[in-house]
Design a protein that fits this description.
The protein is of the alpha+beta class and 229 residues long. The protein is 30% helix and 27% strand.
Length: 229
């Protein structure tokens, strides 16, 4: 039971995060923050915050702060709320689930899953910022804040897999060896960091603008490439 940072990085040496195409400047200044952390930084409160943090976002939301500038919080179109309620099975409300998701920053562990997301109808043919991170140092530094999941927690299509708080497991609790029998694509689906990664540049290999033609990824430009150290 469980997986160490070293074991995880042996199988998944890279992590991938997709963000809005113009997010790089904000990430440079503030780090890679969860939605909840970003709302706190931008001093978003009251009903405006509740609608972003605890309700399904049908569209991406722009937030503006006089000192911190502009940020865009991505939509949650892959979630069908009726299916989500069924998948939660009464253990949580949708509002609680959204709150749980919005407290984390998510990473894919395979290029294949990144490609699937970028090739989805809503996202293909549009530029997106893709960060590629080195797994080992991040997993070592953030081990106590990391959870692993075996499902796409922000999607209920085409199948709404059962889910709840126990969907997110600490690295020491995750059934890694057991799930390896299913192949790397299904061993770990998501890695999430509670609150975000404030010093994300310490682990970033590249920041690229990438799109998809529906079948393969196309790199439009490179915003950052780490020099060999």
């Amino acid at each position: 039971m469980g997986v160490t940072p070293e074991e995880l990085s042996d199988y998944y040496p890279r992590l991938y995060h997709m963000a809005e195409s113009d997010s790089w400047d904000g990430i440079n200044r503030h780090g890679l923050l969860s939605t909840s952390s970003l709302l706190t930084l931008f001093e978003i409160a009251g009903d405006e915050r509740r609608k972003i943090e605890l309700c399904k976002r049908e569209d991406s939301k722009e937030i503006i702060h006089e000192r911190h500038g502009r940020a865009v919080i991505r939509d949650q179109k892959p979630i069908v709320e009726s299916k989500l309620r069924t998948a939660l099975g009464g253990c949580m409300t949708p509002e609680e689930w959204y709150g749980l998701l919005n407290g984390k920053v998510f990473f894919w562990l395979t290029v294949e899953r990144l490609t699937t997301l970028l090739s989805a109808r809503e996202y293909r043919s549009k530029p997106h910022l893709v960060l590629t991170l080195e797994t080992l140092p991040l997993a070592t530094a953030y081990e106590n804040s990391i959870t692993l999941t075996s499902i796409n927690s922000g999607n209920t299509l085409p199948i709404a897999h059962p889910r709840g708080r126990a969907t997110f497991k600490k690295m020491k609790e995750y059934p890694f060896a057991e799930r390896l029998k299913r192949g790397l694509y299904n061993t770990v689906v998501e890695l999430a960091v509670e609150g975000g990664v404030s010093n994300v540049l310490d682990y970033t290999i590249s920041a690229e603008l990438i799109t998809s033609d529906g079948n393969q990824l196309i790199t439009i430009g490179t915003l950052y490439a780490r020099q060999d150290r």
